[in-house]
Design a protein that fits this description.
It is a single chain. With 97 residues, the chain is mostly helical. The chain has one domain: Isoleucyl-tRNA Synthetase, Domain 1. 44% of the residues lie in helices and 0% in strands. It is globular and about 40 Å long.
């Protein structure tokens, strides 16, 4: 995922109306990778992964083996809503401590 973000530099797509499809692609796979890794790593790092999944706004009922897989655990076409309150409160830095 790090390589995808570095190579694609999705921030450069945000202002280009012709690149919105690519921006959606990169954003989708970044979100899905973080969601799946957050779910898989819960047994090993429960506190940190709870915070990751909270920021991603993943419902509690989708934080299990049944929710693992690209596109599982949320309706196709629905908007992903991050929990910006956790990000703006500075809790994002708790993820890397």
């Amino acid at each position: 995922i790090n390589k995808l973000i570095q190579d694609d530099a999705p921030w450069s797509y945000a202002t280009d109306p012709n690149s919105q499809q690519r921006l959606q692609f990169v954003t989708f796979y970044t979100y899905e990778t973080l969601r799946i890794l957050g779910t898989l790593l819960q047994p090993v790092m429960p506190t940190k992964m709870k915070l990751v999944l909270d920021v991603l706004n993943v419902p509690e009922e989708n934080r299990n083996w049944n929710g693992i897989g690209i596109g599982k655990g949320w309706d196709k076409g629905s908007e992903v809503k991050l929990n910006w309150n956790l990000l703006t409160e500075g809790r994002l830095f708790e993820l890397v401590k």
